[in-house]
Design a protein that fits this description.
Layout lengths: L1 H16 L4 E4 L1 H7 L7 E7 L5 H11 L7 H8 L1 E5 L5 E7 L2 H8 L2 E6 L2 E5 L2 H11 L2 H14 L6 H15 L3 H14 L1
Parallel strand pairs: 2-4
Antiparallel strand pairs: 1-2, 3-4, 5-6
Helix pairs in contact: 6-7, 6-8, 7-9, 8-9
Length: about 190
């Protein structure tokens, strides 16, 4: 895990050198806010907006090798750049542009993951929203672990529900809120 965090620190240095707005999401954030689990890659939300993504993608591809052939085209079509560190750690860079994503990145907090190493993580509330939006079984377990570890009283439920409701409408999936309520009941019971 130390190697993964060290790679996150290096990536963060690169992102900071460009003055970009971002935060770490995914497994690294779950490691801090939820129940620790094995994670082998880094997930970053990078605020690119709509229309200027190519400049971000090109700068990242100049510094990091792609994980797939056609990574640039894939990123511009799917809004996820799949790259890796020179030591082979996978990096998924989500090209963020939605108002919610900008809000989540703005709420990111520096967390000391190793002595002297602060990493910008999304908030626990935003991690819950992102995990429920993604909706895979692993994501739902991660969201449940964040709720259980942080505790009912420490989370801003109005914020979570408000943003999840917006994303549920965007995705046309009203079941997202019901999943959240199920996770809350499970954590409480």
């Amino acid at each position: 895990m130390v190697d993964l965090i060290a790679e996150a620190v290096r990536l963060q240095g690169f992102l900071d050198s460009w003055g970009w707005r971002y935060c770490f999401i995914g497994g690294l954030a779950v490691l801090h806010w939820g129940e620790p689990r094995l994670t082998r890659d880094l997930d970053v939300a990078l605020l690119t907006g709509f229309g200027g993504e190519a400049a971000y993608v090109d700068a990242l591809l100049a510094a990091y090798p792609p994980r797939i052939a056609g990574a640039r085209e894939f990123a511009l079509a799917r809004r996820v750049l799949l790259i890796k560190t020179h030591s082979g750690v996978g990096i998924d860079v989500s090209l963020a542009a939605l108002p919610y994503e900008e809000t989540a990145i703005g709420r990111a907090v520096p967390v000391e993951m190793l002595p002297g190493s602060l990493i910008r993580l999304c908030s626990p509330e935003d991690l819950i929203v992102m995990k429920l939006f993604a909706g895979r079984e692993t994501d739902l377990r991660d969201a449940g672990s964040v709720i259980a570890r942080q505790g009912e009283e420490r989370l801003d439920w109005d914020y979570i529900e408000s943003h999840l409701r917006e994303l549920a409408e965007l995705k046309a999936d009203p079941s997202l809120l019901e999943r959240l309520h199920e996770l809350r009941r499970s954590a409480a019971g």
